[in-house]
Amino acid sequence: QEIKIQEQVQRLSVGSIPRCMMVILEDDLVDSCKSGDDITVYGVVMQRWKPFHEDARCNVELVLKANYVKVNNEQLAGVVIDEEVRKEFEDFWEKHKNDPLAGRNEILASLCPQVFGLY
């Protein structure tokens, strides 16, 4: 099975295009991940020659022959928040439970004052 992996867009600088690479999965690694999964792959980088065509230049591509695939989706789900920060967050929204827009305005005024008042 062949899959195409791509750099995570969130980790790229603004304006960068994510790079991609073909990965060859064999034996027990086949169907070990699905489209959209965040994975870690270990393997051997190999050259693969594309088919020859008359009067055309020879092309070679780099592929990764995988020998280990780990699906990381579960790691993204859990966010660790300090209990003090959680309490502060809950207290803030408890204070603004009758007027959540006032809470939003307070956040906007403190974090991005240039945006405050534009809505």
TrEMBL record:
InterPro entries per record: MCM (IPR031327), MCM_OB (IPR033762), NA-bd_OB-fold (IPR012340)
GO CC terms in record: MCM complex; nucleus
Keyword terms, alphabetized: ATP-binding, Helicase, Hydrolase, Nucleotide-binding
One example GO MF annotation: ATP binding
UniProt cross-references to Gene3D superfamilies, sorted A to Z: Nucleic acid-binding proteins (2.40.50.140)
One GO biological process term: double-strand break repair via homologous recombination
Pfam families, alphabetized: MCM_OB (PF17207)
Entry's EC annotation: 3.6.4.12
PANTHER family: DNA HELICASE MCM9, DNA REPLICATION LICENSING FACTOR MCM FAMILY MEMBER
MCM OB domain location: 1-46
The protein's name: DNA helicase
